[in-house]
Amino acid sequence: MRPSILAVAAVAASSLALGACGTGDAEESSGGSAAQGSLKTGPGVDASTKTIRVGDLNALSGPAAALGKPVAAGHQAYFEALNARGGIDGWKIDLAVEDTGYQPQQHVQAYNALKGDIAILNSFGSPTTKAIQPLFGREKLVTIPASFDSIWGTDPTVAPVGTPYSIDVANALDYATEGGAKKLKVGIIYQNDEYGADGLRGFEAAKESLGFTAAGRQSYKPGDTDFTAQVQKLKAAGAEAVVVTALPSATGPIVGTAATLGFTPQWILQGPSYVEQLITEDGTADAKPTPVAAALKGAIVTSFSAPWGDEAAPGMEQLLADQEQYAPDQPPSIYFALAYSQGIVVEQILRKAIGSGDLSREGILAAKENLGEVDLGGITPAVTYTPEGGPPSRNTLITEIDPSVPGFLKVLEPAHSSTVAEEIDISA
Predict the structure, then answer these.
(1) 266-270 and 300-303 as β-strands: parallel, antiparallel, unpaired?
(2) What DSSP letter does each residue of 226-251 carry, written as one string?
(3) pLDDT digits over 264-282, tens only?
(4) Is the pTM of this model over 0.85?
């Protein structure tokens, strides 16, 4: 299965049925480190050409391609722009992108092929990144996941960007129920894997704390296309609000099926459930609306990036300029913006490691653990990395789908926090 971004839009539209240079020497490539003058180096670092190789395991095909493609484009645009501006004190980034199709086994194979020749890693997806977590942990290879699983905050080798899924869902339900004052019947439909389990975790914590009535917990397997049974059960239970923890290729059919059944709850989309192509065929404002666009109007989205073109985000102007120059065909995308923010994090980790004179695996890890707060220009909430670990953020950007605004998302609260979210123990 190889749907492009437009192919996922087609799924939503039918929802009623619905590189390789600059590596270290042989010793470095096998996982060792070598001193280059006063600078200590390691795998993926070529001091003679001042090049650092960054791995990028992505989903350019498969069920998550609609998300993986803009993530890859965001990484590429950020590092090309960074290199054009002189890099990191003269050091240039060589990005090595591999497509793993959102398949854990392929992810492991690609990781094993790259691991000896990269200094730091971007990794797309929860189930895929979890498949390689023991491997990059053993290698002390700092990894930035395009995923918001709560567990990342407990792993010193991981540099997560964004609020964990469980905390996002808890904050969204706190917002929707007005801190528990508004008594609602709330259901959830979730993907039956690591990604969905973390959203369910936030749902359960919110139910216990806020006291709403659970109107069903419906799961589905990745790749499923028929959600009639799940939607019918949520409708029969009288769900007034439904949390959707899915990929967009499932969100369209779920919402479309509900519309045909006359079921119109308040939809609450966990971040990766949303993509701009759910609203128009190609994600741009002038394109034809999809059949589910009207049903999604007013849906709450726990967005992990500011709406496209948000003038309140100081870093948005530079992002748009870099996108226009280095990814001109990229339509508005919160996934592109997320990846751009991840590029900032990679740059800051490597900048600190260079300043410390240590680009070995251990030196890069030490730089990450002692980086402190990183300002992401309002594009994504600031993140903090310390030796103690923990979630990079406990605040949630609450947005609402509005087809009339750029990117189709309107900010309701830029940093919603709640008691229930503060009390979630990510190590449990």
Answers:
(1) parallel
(2) --HHHHHHHHHTT-SEEEEES-HHHH
(3) 999 999 999 999 999 999 9
(4) no
